[in-house]
Fold these 3 entries.
Entry 1:
Amino acid sequence: MQPTQLYLDTARLGRMSPRACVAHVDFACMVAEEGGSKLFERFLRQGVDACRAPVQARFPGLMPWHGIGPLKANLRTLAGSNPDLPVLVVNRSTQLMKFAARLLFKQCRNVLTTDLGWPPYQEILDLEARRTGRTITFVAVHDLLCRDRAGESELIDAVQAKFQQGGCDGLFLTAVSHQGIRLPVERLVRTLEAMQEVRSVVIDGAQDFCHASADLNNEYCDLYLAGCHKWLNGFHPMGLGFYGRSSSVEMIETLAQTLVQSGELDDPLLKFTTQIETAKLDSETETVSLIPLFTCQGAAVDALERSSPLADVLRQRQANLLEATRLAAASGWLPVQPAEPFRTGILLLQAERDKTRQRSAEDLRDAFAEEGLALTSYDGGFIRLSMPPVRWRPPQIDLLEHALSSIA
């Protein structure tokens, strides 16, 4: 299998950004020398300023590290979040989703969600609803957007009708689906709030953060779930939970502390980073992988220093998407996408030929890999391509066209 020439798999796992890569290497070098020494502990708590110049010179890739607090500050900036609101950092994103489900059903009797959610998250929500005897109201919007090509007002009307019919008082919405459909989550929340009480709102922003918007400045949700290994390009998985409203901080903090103490919210990185921030590190702390902290900080610095605003980067991704759609339509692939307002930088395609649709997802992915192209594939002849942030170059277009045509 030849090396990858065109990487379009960001929606699943992004490539490491340049600073994330050098942070990864220099972290490995530092711990090879220092292990768990006092110098390393000071560096972890206080950042490079705690190290003398010779140490800094040996590990230049760790220069962006200034501690947990500055890392969270950078992440809040990228999310457009209020600088005073907390951020949760965890090893396992499913732990955050379990916490989010507990938060929703602690406050709400009936939570509305859509068919755009990531299936494992939906399963967690369903389990918590059954455990608490609460209700989930499900609204199908995928076909409405992709088959019927509905507009924003039609989408809002459909969600509003279900919300009223179910007597809902909570929301779990996916800002950008794993298939690339973008919901106007803030407008949906505001519309429903104007109609009746909405007790709690959780947003899954895993495909949204550093890709589409993730502007939390208007405080329209209570909790926003994200990660650093997709569009931020930190590579090493690390879950992020952004508090979205000043008014709900105390309630969420109380719930988090209760669940941590009971062991129901059991994540070693969450416990470790909290203790580091509060300078209350205990001797019984579980051994935890710290490398995602440093690669995430490197990737965050790269993202903050990009020359174009996120909105401009998204427009370029969408321009690339239009070009890829044109190539696909002429090469035996059918685009599965909504109207323009709901599009992102993710393109979902389905093979036209029945024989290609019968190939397994792994077989399809292997076939594209043989052409030098990395992407995500699904059973049924579906492939997902994440558009690059810069304009296609002629060699990339030629490679993509050839791969689509030969595998269709």
Entry 2:
Amino acid sequence: MPKIDTLELDLYSHWACSLINADDSGLEDDDLAELNAFVDTMVRDHGQCICVDVSEDHWFGMPDYGCLPGDTSTFTFHI
């Protein structure tokens, strides 16, 4: 059986519903713009943005995406 490569990233916890269920109805415009920038980066770098798991709430920032520190979780993506 072929190995499935994964990537774990610490991202905002409130992105979980959108990344797991494709439901961004609870996001404000600024949050949605940040999320879309992240998804665009994943698609550019890995050809897809498929989130398969979310765990471990903690506090962290994501300066690479222009985001301020906040409640985050560890998201696992197939790459």
Entry 3:
Amino acid sequence: MFTRVVEITTKAGKSQEVANTISTKILPVLRKQVGFMDEEVLTSDMESNRILALSFWQKKEDAERYQRDEYSKIREMLSPFLESEPMVKTYNVHTSTPHKIATGKAA
């Protein structure tokens, strides 16, 4: 399993709008992508303009296809709310209880 972590800094007072946009407009797009498994959105309780969006994919290639084919449209959807360019990082999933992956057993 593979994950994309998108670190988002919103304009002041816009974090809830971004989180809601992810839930209502972006999640339906993600669900249509080959290999997409799950999305988690974390809003900071210490920095009100910070959000982490974690998407989980079956394979790295699935996440790369999404990045190449769809991410620019998603980024454009969020642009009115953003203070700066989102930072995208990728990781192999080592352990995940919700996804039933044991330590070191991710594909």
